[in-house]
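Section handout 9: paired folding examples.
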Amino acid sequence: MRRNRLNILAFGTSNNRQSINRSLARYAAHLLTDSQSNVNVEMLDIHDYEMPLFSAEREQALGQPLQALAFRQKIADADALVVSFAEHNGSYTAAYKNLFDWATRIDRDVFQNKPSVYLSASPGPGGAANMLATAIGSASYFGGNVIASVSVPRFHDNYDVEAGVITDAELHTALVQAMQLLRDAIS
């Protein structure tokens, strides 16, 4: 199905306002807008989806929080997703995991089979690759449709904050290729 306007929802999973994963998601998603005027990128801020820590008791008392419903609706309205996973102590960030847990209680297929590029970045040499592998490995259980993935190690050495660009040629090429695969999947 061909559409006039493609809507890309992009976000980083860290609640740090200067998140390198938010920067990476923005950079990657906007690679599609450089050559395509029919692409709209919406940057989601997970601060807008803060809720009480999930528990069965809270779910029984609160029902389905509006923030979790709104998060799922943002995904439903998108044609594709660009998600950059931060790694905290080898796992998902607490902020993202809580949002994800609430959203899965509405419907387990959180990602609604939307074509997605999964990314990760860290200031160290690992590039949060373990977290990225975990996210990719579990994606199919939650309606994930991962088209491509890229891990960016040593983010501060490979990203020019002032210019807002990846400076490493190989990483830039990998991101361009990943985004082209996403574009092909939704065109």
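Moving on to protein 2 of 2.
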Amino acid sequence: MMRMTGLLAGLALALGACSAAPAESRAVPATGSNAARHPVSGLAVVPLAVGRHALKVELAASPADQERGLMFRTAMGPDEGMIFPMNPPRQAYFWMRNTLIPLDIIYIGPDRRVLNIVHGVPHDETPLPSAGPVSAVLELNKGRAAQLGIKPGDRVVW
């Protein structure tokens, strides 16, 4: 899944390119070697809770991992997802280029609470913006946020 962040998102669309924050602002510390790894992506799998709902999510920590996201994946389990940490927090735009799975895109504010939720349609390149600066973005299967009752203001812990 291609990611666009910052104020240059509109210009990037006009140029047909993807703009991203500098790598040093997006990276997070590597997880330990004992971390579980996802069998498809090879990314670390970490526990995440939204309210009282426990999930296991892939950690897309590096710029390359965030750029790839869930592109070309054909399935994801009901209690699985992918988390994209953003340090420092910033406005974010996600789109669905080369993404085959319909998704709920959950923007998480700097206070670690759900800011807003948008719904991604496979292959759609329309930028889906956060409602303000975010410290992370969580992707789940489309409809899963509603099934779990996830809503703006819910606390997210990972």
